[in-house]
Design a protein that fits this description.
It is a single chain. By secondary structure, this protein is mainly beta. Helices cover about 0% and strands about 60% of the residues. The strands form 3 sheets. Strands 4, 5, 6, 7, 8, 9, 10, 11, 12, 13, 16, 17 and 18 form a 13-stranded mixed beta sheet that branches. Strands 1-2-3 form a 3-stranded antiparallel beta sheet, with no helix packed on it. Strands 14-15 form a two-stranded antiparallel ribbon. The longest helix has 5 residues. It starts with 13 loop residues before the first strand and ends with a strand.
Length: about 300
């Protein structure tokens, strides 16, 4: 069995974005290289989650559903080199602090209420739902600060979204679907916390907002088993604002939102087919065409910039 070793960084200095050698936040010379007194990076993550759902039959073919999901991430630890920064907090103003010793918090919750109905002998199905989003994040950050300055940053917001959809199945062969959704994608813990190495923490991130439209048609053969086949096509339209992307920077990168007024516009067509020539074999395939553009909004118009 190969031997397992734990690697430690024994340097007690770091480089800032200007190439200066720093020790405890203060510019030093190359002579300051030395041991780190046995300390190294250590981070602890805690995940808490709750999910609840309630469904109530209002009428024989109509249901009311309520759903709530809550997730909380906490991070705390120590990084004697990479975590060093000059605090701007009133309690320890201008002191050198290890930012990882202060808890970083990321909390998000989604509450939803939806109505589902069946009509025309259950050939027609409709869905209407409302969603309420809450997000809160807090912790030390050095993004957009001068030099090694840092401060505790708190960011919280509330957002609304909704979805409406219809599904119609006139017979056993044909199915038609359409939906429209105004939704959000909240940042995940990696986009906020980074990896504590090449990607820094950034708590100043807004959720992505998008408007999505889909229309789908599907034909499925009456025959099952050998000789069965299906063909379906789906047209989709997407418009995304506040896109979250990885911003490259000197030494360290970080995730952030696209500038205000810049969005992603995409539309396309999906085609799915499958055929079962033998009982033991099914052949399937998928093809997609997508027109994806980076646009700058100019009033009610979108000007293509990429």
């Amino acid at each position: 069995m190969p031997a397992m070793e734990k690697a430690k960084d024994t340097a007690n200095v770091s480089l800032d974005r200007f190439g200066n050698i720093r020790k405890h936040g203060i510019i030093r010379t190359i002579d300051d290289i030395g041991e780190l007194y046995g300390m190294d990076l250590s981070l602890d993550y805690t995940l808490k989650t709750f999910r609840g759902n309630l469904s109530y039959g209002v009428l024989p073919n109509q249901n009311l559903e309520v759903n709530h999901t809550y997730t909380a991430y906490d991070r705390i630890g120590t990084d004697p080199i990479g975590g060093r920064a000059i605090s701007k907090h009133p309690d320890n103003y201008n002191e050198i602090v290890d930012i990882y010793t202060y808890p970083s918090i990321f909390q998000k919750s989604v509450s939803a209420v939806g109505w589902e109905g069946h009509f025309l002998d259950k050939k027609l199905e409709s869905i209407l739902a409302y969603k309420h989003y809450r997000i809160r994040m807090a912790g030390y950050t050095t993004i957009n600060k001068i030099g090694n300055d840092s401060k505790i940053y708190t960011n919280s917001s509330k957002h609304d979204g909704w979805v409406a959809g219809l599904s119609y199945r006139p017979n056993v062969n044909w199915t038609f679907k359409t939906s429209f959704e105004h939704t959000l994608r909240m940042p995940d813990e990696f986009e906020l916390f980074g990896d504590s190495q090449g990607i820094r923490t950034n708590f100043d991130i807004r959720p992505e907002r998008s408007k999505n439209f889909n229309i789908e048609a599907q034909y499925r053969s009456t025959k099952t088993g050998t000789g069965a086949f299906m063909i379906g096509t789906n047209f989709f339209y997407r418009k995304i604002r506040d896109l979250i992307y990885l911003h490259p920077d000197i030494l360290f990168s970080y995730y952030q939102n696209a500038p205000m007024g810049i969005g992603i516009y995409a539309r396309g067509l999906d085609l799915d087919v499958y055929y079962q020539p033998f009982k033991f074999l099914t052949i399937g395939g998928n093809a997609m065409y997508m027109d994806r553009r980076l646009i700058k909004e100019d009033g009610d118009r979108g000007v293509r910039i990429q």
